[in-house]
Amino acid sequence: MDTSTSGGGRHRRRIRIAVPVAAAGLAAAVAGALLVSSANATPSSALPTPVLRTADSSPSQAVLEKRVAGALAGDDTAGRTTKKASLSASTTPSHVDPKIIGGTTTTITTAPWMAQLWYYDEAKGIGFFCGGSVVSPTKILTAAHCTKDENGKTYDWAANGAIVTGTSQLPTDTSLNGGTVTGVSRQWTHPSYSPTRIDNDVAVLTLANPVTVKPIRMTTSGDTTSYASGTKATLYGWGRTTSTTQDISDVLKTATLPINSDTTCAAAYGTDFIKGHMVCAGTKATGTDAGTTTACNGDSGGPLIVGGRIVGVVSWGVQDCVAKGAYSVFSKVSTYVGAAWPRVEDTNLNYDHKADLWVRNPSTKTGYEKDSNGTSFATRRSTGPMGGVNVVLQTDLNRDGIQDLVYRDSTSGDVYWAHVLPATGKTATDKIFGSWGTRARIIAPGDLTGDGLPDMLSVDSAGVMWEYPGKGNGTFSARVQVGTGWSQYNSVRAHGDFTGDGKADLIARSKTGSYVYLYKGTGKTGSGAFSTRIKVRTWADYNVFDAVGDVTGDGKADFLARTPGGTLYLYPGTGKATTEIFATRISVGTGFQQYDIFG
C-alpha cells in the first residue's frame, strides 16, 4: 500500500514484520417472556449464586505499553523460514516471505475489527508485529506463523504480547493514538501448522479482557461463491508500502484484489501452493512497485474480506512482494473455520481450550466443576450451593471469554444468568426470562444466527421451539419460531459445532425408538435455522445426555451420555454429518448417578 509519512516528519516503522520467508512469509414477541434486571439483581427466591472462576489477571497498562514499545523497536520477523518457491518458468526467486503495496489510506471506522498484534520478548530480544481481526470480543484471528517460529516453537503471547484495537494509526513511543491495549490470556495454533510449508496457517488469540469494537465473522465452510475467480476481495493492513525499504505504514491501508483460481495460483507457485488450504489474490506483480497491488510484510495475519466476512488470512508471498508474476497467498478460511470456530466459542470453566463439565448433587444441592483432561475429568471442585434450580446450562452470553451459567428457578420458573464481573471477580445474577416453568427444554447452543453472539432456544409445552437471538449482553431480540413437533424428543442438547462447518448444531433423541438425530445449523434464523434432521444413532441404554463443547481439545464438539448405572461415556466428535458423527465411546468414569443436573 502506498503511503506517506505521518506526523511531523516522523519516520515510518521499519519492522520486518511477522511473516515467514517462504511460500512462507506474509507468510478471516418475547412479549412478557423476556425480563432483564439490573446488573447485580438477585433471584426473587434468593437462590444461591454459583462461585465461578475469573480469568487470569491481565498485565498492567504500563506492562502492556512497554511490550508495544519494545515491539516497535524490534527488527524481527515472526515465523521466519526459508525455502524456494517457483513463481513461473522464467522467474524463480530463492526466497519468499509473508508480506499493502499499491493501496489507499482508510480509517478504523471502515474496518473496526482490525487489530495490531505487538510481540516483545525482552529476555530473548525478540520484537515483531502482526495484523489480526477481532472475530469476537475476546478473540483475534491471525496467522499461525505469528504464534510459532520457524522451528515450530511457540511464541508466548500471554507473557509477551499486547493487542491494540480501535485505531487506524500505529502507536508512537508515547501514545497509542486513540487505541486500546489489551493482554492475551491464551492462544491456539492450528495443530497441523507446518512452518516449512506455511500450511494450515491460522491461529486464534484469546484476550484477557473483551474489547468493545465491532467483530467480523469468518466465512462458512460451504462458501464457494467468495472464492470464484474474479471475485473482488478487500485487503486491510499496516504492512510495507514499497519493495525498496522495510518501512511499514503508520496508518491503516486497504486495497481491492481479485480472487484467482487454484489453477492460476498453482501455475505461479507450483507445489508451494496447496489447493484447498490456500487461496491467492491480486493481479500479477509487475516486478516493481509501479502497477503492483499486493499484501506485503506487516500485513501478516490480517484479513481478506468478501461480502463482509473473512475469506482469507494473509499468509505468504515472494520476498519484497513485487517479483514479476507473483500473487499474495492467504489461508483459505472456509477450510479452517471448522477448526477455528470452536476456539472462538471455547469458553470453559478453567480456560484451557477444553470444555469442562458442571454437575449437581441432588442430596447436598451442591454444584461441582469437573475440568476436562481430554479423555477424562479431574477431581471435582465445588461451585457452591445450587438448590432450588432444575435446569443449569453452560454458556458465555456476553462473550467475555469467561463461562457463565444459565439456570431456572424450580419454584417461579424464572431463568437467571450468572456471570462474572471482571472488575471485581464477583458473580452477578440477572433475571433474563420470566415464568418459564412450563418450558420443556431450555438450550444454550452457542451462535445460531451467524452474528458471533450466543443465542438461546426453548421448547414450550406445545412442542414449539423458539429462538432468542442474543445481543451479547445478556439480553435478546424478539423470539422467532423455529418449528413445531419438538415434544417428540426426550432430550435436546447442544453446545457447539458437531459438523465442522462453523455453525452450532443440535442433537435430539426421540421418545419412541430412542433414535438420535443431528440437526445441522444453517446460520439462519427461525424456520430455516436447521437443516432436515439426520439419524445418526439409536441409543436406548442412556438416561442422561450432555453437550458442553470440545472436551478433547481437538477442535470438534463432543457429546456425553450416562447409563442408569452411572457410567459416563465421552463420544468424541468427528466433524462428520453422518452416522460417523462420533468416534468410539470412551468411559470417563463411574458414579455419575449421584448427579441430577448436567450443565
| Helical residue percent band | under 10%
Give the CA-based shape: globular
Query: Number of helix segments?
Result: 4
Mean pLDDT: 84
Largest sheet: 8 strands, mixed
Residue share in β-strands: 25-35%
Regions with little confidence, pLDDT below 50 for 5+ residues: 1-42, 81-99
Structural class: mainly beta
Q: Output the radius of gyration.
A: 25 Å
Oligomerization state: single chain
Q: Give the N-terminus to C-terminus distance in angstroms.
A: 50 Å
The count of strands amounts to 35
What do you see in this structure?
- The protein is mainly β and 599 residues long.
- The chain is 6% helix and 30% strand.
- Strands 1, 9, 10, 11, 12, 13, 14 and 15 form an 8-stranded mixed β-sheet that branches. Strands 6-5-2-3-4-8-7 form a 7-stranded antiparallel β-sheet. A 4-stranded antiparallel β-sheet has the order 18-17-16-35, with no helix packed on it.
- It is globular.
- The N and C termini lie far apart (50 Å).
- Residues 1-42 and 81-99 have low confidence and may be disordered.
Layout: helices, strands, pairs:
Blueprint: H1 61-73, E1 104-105, E2 114-121, E3 126-136, E4 139-142, H2 157-160, E5 161-165, E6 180-182, E7 184-189, E8 203-207, E9 217-218, E10 232-237, E11 253-258, H3 262-269, E12 278-281, E13 303-306, E14 309-316, E15 328-332, H4 333-344, E16 357-361, E17 366-370, E18 381-385, E19 389-395, E20 404-409, E21 415-421, E22 426-433, E23 441-446, E24 455-459, E25 465-468, E26 480-483, E27 489-493, E28 506-510, E29 515-519, E30 534-538, E31 544-549, E32 558-562, E33 568-571, E34 586-589, E35 597-598
Parallel strand pairs: 9-14
Antiparallel strand pairs: 1-11, 2-3, 2-5, 3-4, 4-8, 5-6, 7-8, 10-11, 10-13, 12-15, 13-14, 14-15, 16-17, 16-35, 17-18, 19-20, 20-21, 21-22, 23-24, 24-25, 25-26, 27-28, 28-29, 29-30, 31-32, 32-33, 33-34
